[in-house]
Amino acid sequence: MIKKSNINGSTDKREVNPEWFTGKTWMKVLSDKIKSKDQDIYHVHFEKGSKTKLHFHNGNQVLMAIKGKGSLEIFKKYGTNKTEFKIKKIEKISLNEGDIVHIPAKTLHTHGSIDKKKEFSHIAINILPKKNSMYKTTWYESDFKSKVKNII
Protein backbone atom coordinates (compact mmCIF):
# COMPACT_ATOMS: atom_id res chain seq x y z
CA MET A 1 0.00 0.00 0.00
CA ILE A 2 1.29 3.49 -0.91
CA LYS A 3 1.47 6.03 1.93
CA LYS A 4 1.67 9.77 1.33
CA SER A 5 2.59 12.51 3.78
CA ASN A 6 3.96 16.06 3.69
CA ILE A 7 6.94 17.42 5.61
CA ASN A 8 5.54 20.96 5.72
CA GLY A 9 3.02 22.05 8.29
CA SER A 10 3.31 18.96 10.46
CA THR A 11 3.51 19.58 14.19
CA ASP A 12 5.10 16.22 15.00
CA LYS A 13 8.30 17.73 16.39
CA ARG A 14 10.49 15.32 18.30
CA GLU A 15 13.15 16.52 20.67
CA VAL A 16 16.55 14.96 20.19
CA ASN A 17 19.09 13.89 22.78
CA PRO A 18 20.87 17.20 23.59
CA GLU A 19 24.09 15.30 24.36
CA TRP A 20 24.39 14.49 20.64
CA PHE A 21 24.34 18.14 19.45
CA THR A 22 26.20 21.39 20.15
CA GLY A 23 23.06 23.54 20.19
CA LYS A 24 19.29 23.39 19.87
CA THR A 25 18.14 20.79 17.35
CA TRP A 26 14.81 19.06 16.74
CA MET A 27 13.38 16.75 14.10
CA LYS A 28 10.34 15.18 12.52
CA VAL A 29 10.28 11.42 11.95
CA LEU A 30 9.10 10.99 8.35
CA SER A 31 9.57 7.23 7.97
CA ASP A 32 6.80 6.56 10.51
CA LYS A 33 4.36 8.66 8.47
CA ILE A 34 4.88 6.61 5.31
CA LYS A 35 5.47 3.27 7.08
CA SER A 36 8.98 2.89 5.58
CA LYS A 37 10.67 -0.36 6.60
CA ASP A 38 14.03 -0.21 4.75
CA GLN A 39 15.23 3.15 6.02
CA ASP A 40 14.70 5.68 8.78
CA ILE A 41 13.89 9.14 7.41
CA TYR A 42 14.10 12.37 9.43
CA HIS A 43 13.68 16.09 8.75
CA VAL A 44 16.31 17.57 11.07
CA HIS A 45 16.32 21.26 12.06
CA PHE A 46 19.51 22.82 13.41
CA GLU A 47 19.02 26.17 15.13
CA LYS A 48 21.59 28.92 14.61
CA GLY A 49 25.07 27.30 14.57
CA SER A 50 24.00 23.93 16.01
CA LYS A 51 25.60 20.75 14.69
CA THR A 52 25.89 17.09 15.53
CA LYS A 53 28.67 15.85 17.69
CA LEU A 54 31.14 13.46 16.08
CA HIS A 55 29.53 10.15 15.13
CA PHE A 56 29.27 7.27 12.68
CA HIS A 57 26.48 4.95 11.55
CA ASN A 58 26.46 1.19 10.93
CA GLY A 59 24.56 1.81 7.65
CA ASN A 60 24.80 4.31 4.81
CA GLN A 61 23.25 7.76 5.17
CA VAL A 62 21.98 10.28 2.61
CA LEU A 63 21.57 13.97 3.51
CA MET A 64 19.48 16.40 1.43
CA ALA A 65 19.86 20.08 2.37
CA ILE A 66 16.45 21.76 2.56
CA LYS A 67 16.95 25.18 4.15
CA GLY A 68 19.89 27.45 4.96
CA LYS A 69 23.60 26.69 4.82
CA GLY A 70 25.30 23.77 6.50
CA SER A 71 28.37 21.62 6.30
CA LEU A 72 29.45 18.02 6.49
CA GLU A 73 32.88 17.33 7.97
CA ILE A 74 34.62 13.97 7.57
CA PHE A 75 37.27 12.77 10.04
CA LYS A 76 39.90 10.06 10.09
CA LYS A 77 40.46 8.06 13.26
CA TYR A 78 43.98 7.29 14.56
CA GLY A 79 44.45 4.55 17.16
CA THR A 80 42.69 1.36 18.18
CA ASN A 81 41.06 2.43 21.45
CA LYS A 82 37.26 2.55 21.00
CA THR A 83 36.61 5.38 23.45
CA GLU A 84 39.71 7.62 23.30
CA PHE A 85 41.62 8.28 20.08
CA LYS A 86 43.09 10.98 17.85
CA ILE A 87 41.19 12.43 14.90
CA LYS A 88 41.98 14.59 11.90
CA LYS A 89 39.51 16.44 9.68
CA ILE A 90 40.07 15.19 6.14
CA GLU A 91 37.22 16.91 4.29
CA LYS A 92 34.69 19.72 4.72
CA ILE A 93 31.74 19.84 2.32
CA SER A 94 29.42 22.86 2.12
CA LEU A 95 25.73 21.99 2.09
CA ASN A 96 23.47 24.49 0.33
CA GLU A 97 19.73 24.22 -0.31
CA GLY A 98 19.15 21.38 -2.77
CA ASP A 99 22.50 19.63 -2.22
CA ILE A 100 22.48 15.88 -1.66
CA VAL A 101 25.34 13.78 -0.29
CA HIS A 102 25.92 10.08 0.42
CA ILE A 103 27.85 9.14 3.57
CA PRO A 104 29.16 5.55 3.56
CA ALA A 105 28.64 3.37 6.65
CA LYS A 106 31.26 3.73 9.41
CA THR A 107 32.40 7.18 8.20
CA LEU A 108 33.29 9.39 11.18
CA HIS A 109 31.56 12.74 10.62
CA THR A 110 29.59 15.73 11.86
CA HIS A 111 27.02 17.96 10.13
CA GLY A 112 24.81 20.94 10.84
CA SER A 113 24.42 24.71 10.56
CA ILE A 114 27.36 26.96 9.75
CA ASP A 115 25.50 30.25 10.20
CA LYS A 116 25.16 31.58 13.75
CA LYS A 117 22.22 33.77 12.62
CA LYS A 118 20.13 31.31 10.57
CA GLU A 119 18.85 27.77 10.92
CA PHE A 120 19.72 24.87 8.64
CA SER A 121 17.64 21.80 7.92
CA HIS A 122 18.12 18.60 6.00
CA ILE A 123 16.39 15.33 5.28
CA ALA A 124 18.43 12.40 6.64
CA ILE A 125 17.82 8.99 5.13
CA ASN A 126 19.44 6.28 7.23
CA ILE A 127 19.60 3.12 5.14
CA LEU A 128 19.36 -0.07 7.19
CA PRO A 129 22.54 -2.17 6.91
CA LYS A 130 20.48 -5.28 6.12
CA LYS A 131 16.82 -6.20 6.05
CA ASN A 132 15.08 -6.26 9.45
CA SER A 133 18.18 -4.90 11.22
CA MET A 134 18.60 -1.90 13.52
CA TYR A 135 20.29 1.28 12.34
CA LYS A 136 22.81 2.27 15.01
CA THR A 137 24.75 5.46 15.59
CA THR A 138 27.82 5.73 17.82
CA TRP A 139 28.24 9.23 19.27
CA TYR A 140 31.49 10.73 20.62
CA GLU A 141 32.51 13.65 22.80
CA SER A 142 35.39 15.43 21.02
CA ASP A 143 37.10 18.77 20.44
CA PHE A 144 36.34 18.52 16.66
CA LYS A 145 40.07 19.02 16.02
CA SER A 146 42.42 16.36 17.28
CA LYS A 147 40.99 14.07 19.96
CA VAL A 148 37.99 12.06 21.04
CA LYS A 149 37.41 11.74 24.78
CA ASN A 150 34.71 9.09 25.09
CA ILE A 151 31.53 7.56 23.73
CA ILE A 152 28.37 9.43 24.69
The CATH topology, please?
Jelly Rolls
Strand order in the largest sheet: 1-2-3-10-5-8
The CATH fourth-level homologous superfamily: Jelly Rolls
Please report the distance between the alpha carbons of the first and last residues: 39 Å
Descriptive account of the structure:
With 152 residues, the protein is mostly beta strands. The protein has one domain (21-151): Jelly Rolls, CATH 2.60.120. It is built from one helix and twelve strands. The chain starts with 12 loop residues before the first strand and ends with a strand. The mean pLDDT is 91.
Architecture blueprint of SSEs:
Blueprint (H helix, E strand, L loop, with lengths): L12 E3 L9 E5 L1 H4 L4 E8 L8 E3 L3 E7 L1 E10 L6 E12 L3 E4 L4 E6 L6 E8 L9 E6 L4 E5 L1
Antiparallel strand pairs: 1-2, 2-3, 3-10, 4-11, 5-8, 5-10, 6-7, 6-9, 7-12, 11-12
List descriptors:
3% helix; globular; mainly beta; 152 residues; six-stranded antiparallel sheet; single chain; Jelly Rolls
Task: Give a brief description.
The chain has one helix at 31-34; strands at residues 13-15, 25-29, 39-46, 55-57, 61-67, 69-78, 85-96, 100-103, 108-113, 120-127, 137-142, 147-151.
